[in-house]
Amino acid sequence: MTTPSDNRELGIPADVHRVNEAALVAYLKEHIAGFVGTCTIQQFLGGQSNPTYLIEDTSGTYVLRKKPPGRLLPSAHAVDREYRVISALAGTGVPVPGTRVLCEDDTVLGQVFYVMDYVPGRVLAEREMPGCSSSERTAMFHSMASVLGALHRVDYCEVGLEDFGKPSKYVARQVARWSQQYEASKVEDCDAMDSVIEWLTQNDPDDEQAAIVHGDYRPGNVIFHNDNPDIAAVLDWELSTIGHPLADLGYFLMPYRLDAAASPWGLQGLDLDGLGIPPESMLVEAYAGASRRQSVENIDYYIVFSMFRLAAILAGVLRRGLDGNASDPRAIERGRTYAPLAAVALSIAHNS
After folding, report:
1. pTM of the model
2. What is the structure's pLDDT at 2?
């Protein structure tokens, strides 16, 4: 049995997230070659969407991701799409875990789930990346920009994802979708959200580009190698689709526009030079080189769009927290940050 050598926090699953271990072991014995079943199961703590578990078996170490229990919004928690895109990206140069099995029979665990290989390494969700040197942080950010560019360079048709999303009018459709999700999950009125939705609708650059987009690309969703600053694997593909690549870039750059004192993701106000965090312009340049594009246009629009979409997601986190079926006990506190985030997005929009 292997021992994980990373900094991810593990614990015993809460009652609402416990899995039927006997049913799971029987299923994995049948579908994963060599799986023995003398295993331990722990849940990764943190995160708000799909419960994720570490399975340590005599045969190896695996990760299971499943839909959460309870009433779910339409098209949310698409672990089957995660499995498909991760499998498609194998061998493309975009670092992803190896996939093992997708179970769409919800009689096994009560929800759809999939199993992939465990990838050792560091997940650095905190913005200062504690424990890293200044030079290492610089290299990590450059690695992230380069991997994002490499992802957007993949021909989605060649890897079998031609029907993974609609390539046209991505932003307009996303604004409509997340507006609907927000309306379905909101617990209170928020004027800033309403105004941002209106601004995004009226100011769409209508710049048609299409690529595989991750949808939640940030340091907390990648694994860095334990002994070097390169990315070992990109995680959490739940929001991936075929869409506008600059939406991914805008999301990645979003922390540069957020006040560190007001947002847990914000970089404004930190000593970026001292930390070794490259300026926004340098990451744009690194991304442009990796994606083989001449320029990056209208990035403010895509940053506002990214803030809006994240605010809509956080409003859903708040709803799940209040309903008692979030995968993290800090869901309510984190979810309430959606309104201040919408206010920042509106400010950028007005100044754009």
Report:
1. 0.87
2. 44
Q: What mean pLDDT value characterizes the chain? A: 91
Count Cβ neighbours within 10 Å for each residue of 312-328 and write b for 16 or more, e otherwise: bbbbbbbbbbeeebbbb
User: Both tokens of residue 134?
Assistant: 């200044």
Domain boundary (90, 117, 144) is at 117
The answer as to whether 177 is a domain residue is yes
Please name every residue paired with 65 in a beta bridge, in sequence order, or none if there are none.
52, 114
Query: How far apart are alpha carbons 317 and 73 in whole angstroms?
Result: 11
Token pair belonging to 195: 């105004």
pLDDT at 61 over 90: yes
What CATH number has the domain bearing residue 206? Answer: 3.90.1200.10
Would you give the end-to-end CA distance of the chain in angstroms?
A: 54
Contacts of 89 (CB under 8 A, 6+ apart): 96, 151, 154, 159, 212
Domain housing 230:
136-351
For the cut 50, the answer to whether the pLDDT of residue 339 exceeds it is: yes
| Helix boundaries (H) for the chain | 21-31, 79-89, 134-153, 170-185, 191-202, 245-253, 272-275, 280-291, 299-323, 331-335, 338-351
Span 64-76, average pLDDT: 70
d(CA 147, CA 212): 12
Cβ distance 249 to 274 under 8 Å?
A: no
Across the range 188-194, mean pLDDT stands at: 93
DSSP string, 102-140: EE--TTTTSS-EEEEE---SB---STT-TT--HHHHHHH
Q: How far is CA 198 from CA 194, 201, 207, 312, in A?
A: 6, 5, 18, 14
Place of tokens 């996939």: 99
Contact 224, 132 (CB under 8 A): no
pLDDT at 70: 61
- For the cut 50, the answer to whether the pLDDT of residue 41 exceeds it is yes
